[in-house]
Amino acid sequence: MIRFIDTFRGRFGVEFICRVLGATACGFITSRGYRAAKSRKPAARAIRDGLLVEEVKRLHAANYGVYGVRKMWHAMRRAGWDIGRDQTARLMRVAGVTGVVRGRKPRTTVPARVPDQRPDLVMRDFKAPAPNRLWVADIERHEALLDLAVVKGHRFASVAAGV
């Protein structure tokens, strides 16, 4: 709210902005409250965060910019800062630094090397002219068990006209 008033105070004036805003979601602010907030000293947490953000940036760069929250938390503690893990995560967000994500996501679908040569018997038209004329099955997995083929997890549905 203070930042908003600072942005537009030259154009509209503090009193007018406070009068127009009135009761807001973040609380009621008056021109007197605005001046009090501007003259107030920064909080101890804000001052400490200013120091720690610079330390987070320095340590992150010193470790080739690959440390995530957990390793950064340990590095900060080794450097002598009494800091919590969640505070480290918040300071890393403020500083705009992130860790490197290792590994890859699992590959679940492997595309075929050649185009599909199987015929499309329904020509991608899944509308049946009458009941029991077009049957569609989606077979997810085959498993051979002692010369007996078992279809697991199959879905089978008949498509009727008008359904």
In short:
The chain is built from six helices and six strands; from the N terminus they run ααββααααββββ. It has 163 residues and is of the alpha+beta class. The longest helix has 19 residues, at 44-62.
Topology:
Blueprint: H1 2-12, H2 14-21, E1 23-24, E2 27-28, H3 31-39, H4 44-62, H5 69-78, H6 85-95, E3 134-138, E4 141-145, E5 148-152, E6 155-159
Tell me what the structure shows.
By secondary structure, the chain is α+β, with helices and mostly antiparallel strands. Helix content is 42%, strand content 15%. The protein contains six helices and six strands. It has helices at residues 2-12, 14-21, 31-39, 44-62, 69-78, 85-95, and strands at 23-24, 27-28, 134-138, 141-145, 148-152, 155-159. It has a two-stranded antiparallel ribbon with strand order 1-2. Strand 4 (141-145) and strand 5 form a beta hairpin. The radius of gyration is 32 Å and the shape is flat. It starts with a helix and ends with a strand. The model is unreliable at 142-151 and 157-163 (pLDDT under 50).
